Amino acid sequence: MALTATDIKAPQGFIQTFLHTLKSVFQDKGVLLMLIIAPVIYGFFYPWPYSNQIIANVPVGIVDYDQSTLSHNIIRYSQSSPRLETITFKDEQAAKQALWDYQIAGYLVIPPELEKNVYAARPASVSVLGNGGYFILNKYVQTGFTQAVATVSAGVEVKKQVAHGARIEQAKTNTQAVPLRIDPLFNPMEAYGVYIVPAVAILIIQQTLLMGVAMLIGSWSEEQRCHTSISGWLGRIMAFSCISLLVGIFYIGWIFNINDYPRGNNITGALLCLWITAMAVSTLGCLFGLWFRQRERSLQILIFSSLPFFFVSGYPWPASQLPEILQYLRWLVPSSSAMNASVQLNQMGASIAQVSHYLYVLVALFVFYFTLLIYVDRRQRIKGK
Asked: Each residue of 152-174: pLDDT tens digit?
């Protein structure tokens, strides 16, 4: 592959380009900020809002139209729930106003004659209304009230059976003939931070790496010294990947540990996933930098891609529910495979074989991106640009 005169300044050998790229990263303050400093700062500050892990003392309202012993028991059990902090309202309109003013996250309505209907074996129910716009708070409101009402209901049922001659032990057993046990695997506290941070960490690594690499290659393109040989491109990609791998180790080896996220202890698989991901993303960054040919353009375009990449990954929303075209296009983005593979390896303890399909996709993307990179590089040389 012939080189133009303007490209002679660019190193061509693998080792030369590897060392030159590392030196350039640390000499360019903008690229250094994007590749190393930004993901480290994100690593400390992004998990911080979720550090409490479990939401407690959610403010809720109770409207008691019955004013009976049964309703007082429901209120007492609701007040004893660590999830809820209860406020009593005289009527439902006052509770609704408090909900609209964001003073409470939901409320419970105990209808009149509840106790009378329960003991007369007539249909009876209570209503729980929550703010569905905040689905996590809404979940805790519903769960807290459900547990309180279920506890009181079980006590009423036991009393009714004892009154009909059953022994108390038998009555307690009959209230739940098939006990239900719920064990949340891989997130025993059902914490939002455990769910979101490990996946978003991979997206942070991808986006900062993409923008940093594209910025540096774009700078070299402006200076007409971006073109190199195939081994030269591999040396650049290897340098960027080594930096990204160290950032990834910082996340899985330090950030996940200090935040006490569940760990699957598959270190070998996690490192392999990080390495293949770094290679694919670094190659894509080189392709973007060569394609955009301007330093700032990479930031202008890529800075808006984080949110779409996250939602098409299949992690926050089932991929099967995406529009059909996105179900195919999402595989062209490394994070779609990397996020799911990383979570399964780091949090769930999956084996490499169990996530191999994701790793194969990442390897295929690396080959695809590298082929395009060499093609674009050759086309630009032929055109003399």
From this structure: 777 666 555 545 555 555 545 55
pLDDT in tens, 136-155: 788 888 888 888 888 777 76
Contacts of 287 (CB under 8 A, 6+ apart): 369, 372, 373, 376
Average pLDDT over residues 167-192: 63
Place of tokens 């998990």: 47
Considering the domain 58-174 in this protein, what is its CATH number? 3.40.190
Q: Write the secondary structure of 307-346 as one string of H (helix), E (strand) and C (coil).
A: HHHHHHCCCCCCHHHCCHHHHHHHHHCHHHHHHHHHHHHH
The two tokens of residue 225 are 């010294």
Which residues are within 8 A (CB) of 221 and not within 5 positions of it... i.e. 6 or more apart? 289, 290, 292, 293, 294
Place of tokens 């239900």: 180
CA separation for the pair 261, 298 (Å, rounded): 33
* pLDDT score, position 122: 82
DSSP string, 210-259: HHHHHHHHHHHHHTT-----HHHHHHHHHHHHHHHHHHHHHIIIIIHHHT
- In the chain, list all ranges with CATH 3.40.190: 58-174
| DSSP three-state, residue 81 | coil
pTM check: above 0.85: no
Pick 217 or 294 by higher pLDDT. 217
